[in-house]
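okkk here we go again. third time trying to get the pyridoxal-5'-phosphate bound version out, last two times i messed up the smiles copy paste (missing a bracket lol). double checked this time i swear
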Amino acid sequence: MNTDNRWAWVEVDLGAIQKNVALLAKQAGKAQLWATVKANGYGHGAVQVAQAALGAGATGLCVALADEAHELRQAKITAPILIVSEQPATQFEQMLRDDVVATLYNESTINSYAKTASDLGIVGKVHLKVDTGMHRVGAPVASAMTRCRQIKSLASLQLDGVYTHFAAADLPNHDETAKQVQRFDNVVAELDQESLRPKYVHTSNSAAAMRVLSATTDIARVGIAIYGIAPSGELESMAKDLQPALSLHARVSHVQHLAAGEGVSYGLRTKLSQAATIATLPIGYADGVQRRLWKVGGEVLIGGKRCPIVGVVTMDQLMVNCGDADVQIGDHAILIGAQGSQSISANEIAAKLETIGYEIVCGISARVPRKYLDAKK
Ligand SMILES: *Cc1c(COP(=O)(O)O)cnc(C)c1O
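finally!!
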């Protein structure tokens, strides 16, 4: 990737991903680590992250969509791939041909997936998702056993796993998690009683894996932590050994020396309180830098110093106040990452925008080229 062609780019350190995966796999103990690479690997690049993760100890992958799984298969990735929600019936044939692990939980979906598998002469691997309290998707606890028996009764399906997902694993003081663990453990006990326990029973996302919330997990479905980002502010200290893999860069494309009282950007909403050097960066909200970042204290690193964003972020460009610094066209700016002794994390930006680091990295649009720093072995 030639970063000269666009003066705004992402760098993804695949070595950092590998270190994080190795560390998290060790912490997961007997559980396997399946790297979650949905949403183009949380904006990092699904295929590149998947290959790095599998090379560092991950044994499977999780995605949100059938087409995301297909992209990995097209890249010759043969590891198990779990799609974590039911998909439209039009995707069933592709899922079966791709030999993915389908998540199912509705009676009718189970039947129609089984019918497609049977028509193709394929036995489809299935994980049943149980809704133990998140209330997003999954079979209610009360019907979990019925759904398991249904899947078992269908010759074209193989019940390979049963799992659940926590609603509040990233909030250490929330009392729902222990209740979810208990409800899930009850389902697993029933599976054992009926000798229906599948190869994999699993629960943990990053936060749950890091906090070791459930003993009942054969797979840790780790996403955000492999990218070196803490799942929440509360878990920042537990994530201190993880290395952020993504950094967001730009080069100064224009420099102005403006007098006190001058306004900057659409609406001229801020007036400079004193004369300043204003640098323009060719990156904007169409690239995933939120328009309102100027209002909540958004900053950029130039020359190792924090420079506040001035004026609204526009679609393709933003301006920063460099004070009296000597800034030149072509100077390197960091929007996420480290420069000198300063660093700006995805979670720092997220906190200002009252969101989570996940949304910051997923929001970096496809228009921003990704440059990969290869893993050093
Ligand atoms: C996204 C997702 C994960 C990964 O979550 P992280 O918090 O990024 O680790 C795990 N399981 C399910 C069902 C998911 O949807």
